[in-house]
Amino acid sequence: MTRARIVFDLDGTLIDSAPDIRGVANMLLKQEGKAPITLAQTHSFIGNGMPVFVQKMSALREIPEDRHSDLVQKFEDAYHGAVSLTECYPGVGETLDSLHGAHCLGICTNKPIGPCKAVLKHLKIDHFFDAVFGGDSLPVRKPDPAPLQATFEAMGTGPCLYVGDSEVDAETAQRAGVPFLLFTEGYLKTTPEQTPHRIKFDSFADLPRLVEQVLSQG
Question: Which residues are catalytic, by number?
Fold first, then answer.
């Protein structure tokens, strides 16, 4: 069996963190005297990193641009402890356990590295990953391919696969020149047909088989 390097996105791929992200956002909006955002709006803002999330939230609620830096800092401060509503998608734990025995696993997310490591530890899945890169680990974020490439480099050698749920992840994989496996039950804003991918799946129980299928195809 070929030992591959498999890197996962986090939010919307391995975990459903939108309820906690929404909680932080609405706490800040309340402090600003603004109306809360919905879960659907939260989903639509996730993907390009926390500063972009805050920018989109602020634009929707007409918060002045000069508040951005302060709100980003407040968001990150609250984000570290925002784990109580976050859950793994069904089958994630079992699938990671299965894949970890045969392959090298990593995380490449636009979530800041502090909150990323905090939620991985809270959900007790941190031990599965040999490399973890967050949205502030490098000067650039996805869809720039540099964070994904750095994650793979930190994992040694072997074929590379990227697993994610969004248009940002698809573009990142495409720019890095690696096969992309699309999880369709996350925060995708368009449709799978509009999102470049090698293979798609809606259940983590299918992922080990699909990984072997992609690896056998070369």
Answer: 9
